[in-house]
Amino acid sequence: MPELPEVETVRRTLEQLIVGKTVDGIEVLYSPLIKRPLDDPETFRETLRSETIQAIKRRGKFLIFETDRLSLVSHLRMEGRYALKTKDDLPDKHTHVIFRFTDGTALHYRDVRKFGTFHLFSRGEEMQSAPLLPLGPEPLDPGFTLDAFIRMLRGKTTKLKPLLLDQHFLAGLGNIYVDEALFRACLHPERPANTLTRKQKTALYESIVETLQKAVDSGGSSVRSYLNGKGEMGMFQLQIQVYGRQGESCPNCHSPIRKKKVGGRGTHYCPKCQPQPRRRSGSAVRKSM
User: Where are the domains of the chain?
Assistant: First the structure.
C-alpha cells in the first residue's frame, strides 16, 4: 500500500500535471469505488462536471482534489495509480475511473484490486467526517514536535509496531516505514510504548521524521508496483535497511534480519540491534513515563 511518501510524491506530480484543468466529463467504469455519494455514480459525475482543479492536497495516505466548490478525497489502497493520458488513449481492463478535461487530456485511475475509494464533499466539509476526521497528526507537519509526540505516547501500552500503524494515532505510516523507523531507533517492534525512556522516545521521533523525509525526497519506495503520476519509480528502496530483507545481513551488526508477525503484520527487524524488551516492574515502567 502506498504510504505517506508515495502519496506525497503522487500529490506533487498531479499538482504539476492537472492543476488548472477543467473537468469536461467523467467515466465511472466500476461504481463500487465511489463511496460518497454512495451507490450514485451519476451524481458523482454531474457534480464534478465543469469544475476546475485548484489544488491537490494530502492528508495521511489520502489525496484531496480541490475545486472552487468541492473536495474529492481519494485513497489509492493497495494498487491504485493515476496517469495523465490523451483523449485518444484507450483504458485497459484495470482502469475504473476517467476524468476527461476540456483541453483534451484525461486522468486515468487504474486499480488492479479495485480497493481504492472516492469520497466527494462540498469544500471544507471533508475534514469534518470520515475518512479524514479520525486521522492522527501528520508526522511531517511543523506541529508534530518531540513534546507533542511524547504527550501522544503517555498511557499507551500498545506494542510499537501496531501503535505506529494505527492511522488514528499517527497518519501516513505503513509497514515499510514503521519497520525502517524502528530499526533506526534501535527499538524492538513488540516493545510496549509505555516502557520507553525519554531518550528512546526522542530517538523514535527523530527516526520517524528523518525516515519519512528521506523517502519523500527520494520519491517514495517502488518496492512492488508503485509509480508516480508520470509513471516514474521512487528510489527510497535503495536506502531500505530491514524491510523485505529477511535472512540478509544487518547493515550495522551483520546479524541475519528476521521476519515475524506483529499485530498481524509481517515485521522485519534485527534481533541484535533491536533486542527483545525485558519485563520490567511496575515502578520501573512508571519512572519511564
Answer: 4-128, 146-288
2 included as an active-site residue = yes
> SS3 for 199-247, per residue?
HHHHHHHHHHHHHHHHHHHCCCCCCCCCCCCCCCCCCHHHHCCCCCCCC
Let me know if 66 is a catalytic residue: no
Residue 222: pLDDT band (50, 70, 90) is very low
Q: Which of 265, 271, 277, 280 is catalytic?
A: 265
In the CATH hierarchy, which top-level class contains the domain 146-288?
mainly alpha
What is the per-residue pLDDT across 32-62, written as a single tens digit (0 to 9) for each?
A: 999 999 989 999 999 999 999 999 999 999 9
Q: Out of 11, 61, 159, 184, which one is annotated catalytic?
A: 61
All three cell numbers of 263, joined, read: 499485530
Say which of 3, 6, 126, 190 is annotated catalytic: 3
In CATH terms, 4-128 corresponds, of 3.20.190.10, 3.60.20.10, 3.40.630.30, 3.30.565.10, to 3.20.190.10
pTM of the model: 0.89
